[in-house]
Structures are given as C-alpha cells and as structure tokens.
Automatic annotation (TrEMBL):
It comes from Chitinophaga terrae (ex Kim and Jung 2007). Residues 343-464 form the RagB/SusD domain. Residues 452-466 have a biased composition (Polar residues). GO terms for cellular component: cell outer membrane. This is SusD family protein. Residues 22-242 form the SusD-like N-terminal domain. Keywords: Cell outer membrane, Membrane, Signal. InterPro entries: SusD-like_N, SusD_RagB_dom, TPR-like_helical_dom_sf.
Amino acid sequence: MKIKSLLISGFAGLLTLSSCSKFLEEKSQSEVIPKTAIDYRELLIGSGYMDVYQEPNSFIYFMDDDVDFFIERADGQDSPVGQYDAKVDFPYYTWQPRQADRNGVGDLISEDPGSTAYAQYYKWIMGCNAVLDNIDKAIGTDAEKNRVKGEALAVRAYYYFILANMYGEPYNHNPQSLCVPLKLNSSITESQMKQNTVAEVYAQVVADLNEAAALLDPLPIARKDFHINQPAIHMLLSRVYLYMEKYNDVVSETNKAFAQGAMLADLTAMPYANWLTYNNPEVEWLFGGNTQGDQSTYIPAAAFRATFDPADVRITQGILVQSNNGVPLVSKLPTGGQLGQTIRTPEAVLNRAEANVQLGKLSDALKDLNDLRRTRIPGYTDVSISDKAALLLAVREERRKEFCFEGFRWFDLRRYGMPAITHRYQEDLGGPILQFKLAEKDPAYTLPFPSSLLQRNPELKQNPSGTMPDRIGQ
C-alpha cells in the first residue's frame, strides 16, 4: 500500500479522522513510496516522532501540587489573578469534569476530535505503525532496518505509556480497569475499536520496549541526533517497571543504561539554558514540545520552592525568582520553537534509588541520592538516612525537584496513591479566594475523555471523572 494513503486511511479507521505525513508533503505533492531503510527513518521522524510545536498533554502542568495561582506580593502586581489565560485554564487547575470539552471562558475546545491530546498521540502511533508494517520490505541492510524498527517500537511504546497514564487508572491501583484501545498496525479499521485494560496496554509497552532494545543494543549507540537511542530505551523501560513495581527489573534496566555510557553531569557549573538540550551530556534523547503552560499564569508553589536547599541550582537557576519583580518562573524550560523534553541520566539514578529502597538495599539507594545531589548543590555534604520510609520520601522528593514541570509529577502522584491536593483560585483581584480540593484517590486522577471522541467512537466508555458534578470552590 502507498504509505501516504496508508497513514490517512489507517488513522481514519481509528478515529474517523485524516492525517498526512509532513515528510511526504514536503517530498512531493503526489504520493511517495518510501523504498529504503533511510526513507523509512525519515518517514518516522516526520510522522512518528513528536514535533517541536506541541506537547498534547501539557495541561497536566496545571493539575499537580507544584503549581499555584498566587504571587506573594501585597500590591498584587504581576499576579496572574484575573488574567485571561488564568481563566482559560481554570478547568484544568480545578480538576473540572468537562475540562476536555470547554475552557474556562466557555469556548468549545474539542469539537474537532483530531485536536484532542488523545488523537494527537494516535496520529503519531499510526506513523509508527506505518513504518513497522513496511520496514521489513525496505531496501537496506538488516542493521539499518533494525534501527528503524527498534526506534518505531520504542516511540510507539512511549505514546501508549503516556495515554495509559492519562486515561487509565494507575497500574498499581487497578490494572484490570479500562484504558485505551491498542492499535498495532496501520490497516483500515472499519469497526470502532474497544478499549484494552491498563494491564494489557502496559504489557504491550513492555513488549515493544524489550523488542526495541533487542534490535538496537547490538548496534552502535548514536547520540545527539534527536532519535531515541539505547540508553534512553532502557531508562524508559526502567520507568515503566517502576510504575509496575517490578523493582528488580528497574535496577537491571538502569544498570544497562549506565553500561552504555549514561552519565551524570555537574549542573552547578552548567548554564541552566543548557540543561534540557544536547549541550547537557546527561541527555540521551531530546524530543517534543514544551511541557509547561503559560509561565506567567501558573508559578512554582511557595511550599514546593521551600523544599529546596538554598544553594541548589535547580532553585537558584532552574526556578528563577526574578529580581526586578519577584515573580518566580521556571527558567530551565525552553521557549519558542525549541524541543522541550528529555530522557536523561538522573532519571536512571532516581529510578534505581527508589527501586533499591523498596528492595531493602538502602546503602545503594543512599549512594545514588548523594551522588545526584552532589551535582546539583554546590558544597553539598553527603547525608546518612537509615530509615526506609524516610529514605523513600527523600528519593521521591529529589525526583520532584529534578523533574519539576517536565510532566513527571502528576503521573508520579498517581502511583504514590493519589494524595489529596488543594489549589487556591481567585477570579479577580479583590474577589474571594476559593479553595478547590482534589480528594485522596479522586476519580479525576484518571482524566475524562473529550465528548467528541465518545461521540465518534461509542465503544469508548467515559471515565468516572467525566461524569462528576462541577467542582465548586469553598
């Protein structure tokens, strides 16, 4: 089948939508048939990899406990309160059941199901599937084809992992609950697809990542080329196993990443603008759009900022309190048309540390914790923590600091047991300050599906979070 037609018809079969490959559009206005493994690798970049212009689930930035609405200034200057952007994002910030359908000023935001985060991820999944269905017939060496196939499997696995943590319940809470449909080929689907369970989606993610590793591990490691590589695959697999609480597997996968050259860097001597770029030798894969919402609207919460060591460069540089107006901003994240996400070595360190705590290997976990802190806090002195619960908390708090505003926290809170969260909201300066509460194990920890998707695919079952009454501030 011609690949352009394949991509369009396959995605149409899944969501009754259409999409086309940027790669193919740029090559020719007519249909193009990739022939070589190199062609398919370009097709994968154009149709399977995330682009720089968007991160479909960046709205989860507004939902966790690292953000707040208020700037601590009595005069109210530079406050987001009353700003249009703050009102637009109100449904996310307050965990409203119709957050996927209307913004905070009443505009419909999901009339076109193709604009939803759900559909964006499936569009890229279809790009991966198109490559996987055809790469074995390509012209090229086995090594060239294995590299393309391994990348496509790994990237597809990443998308399904994200979808599972958006629309399925936490794996360690209810793995048999409904999740999202698994679409594993690019053929036309005439019938609507039914949802798989969380356990089934995770099983596919693990299978894809393990197959990707088996294909790529024998090949030379490529770095700084915007393609997922072997250490990144093993780090991603360690993350999945951590969510599944398979702690021995977590340690095994992180050790493989270190054996392949993953390394920590001294951020105390590195400009913060380089942290999430290939100028940072910790970064194994750079991809995707910015994970942060409007930085002038939501700011790092004061309680969270207070958890940092005052000398920690992640607060003195990564979260920058500007001297001219006192507004705290997340300065480590890129702006404009720059790639904004990474898989990098500190995740391997912290995944392994958390797994070792759970395995009772406290000295190994403590070493990893101290090793990481030494590269973030000038003049750091190693600490000694002998209590298992205290060390687990310290490792998880270090994870929070290291990856704040990079899309980790909301998913981590889910696997930590879905704790209660409170957000303050004030519609306009001078108005009442309302408290909106997310209860422990609240259904909103699993996101609602947009109504437009439910209408297009009746096989999708709305999550309980989408059938709750509106949340009212107190």
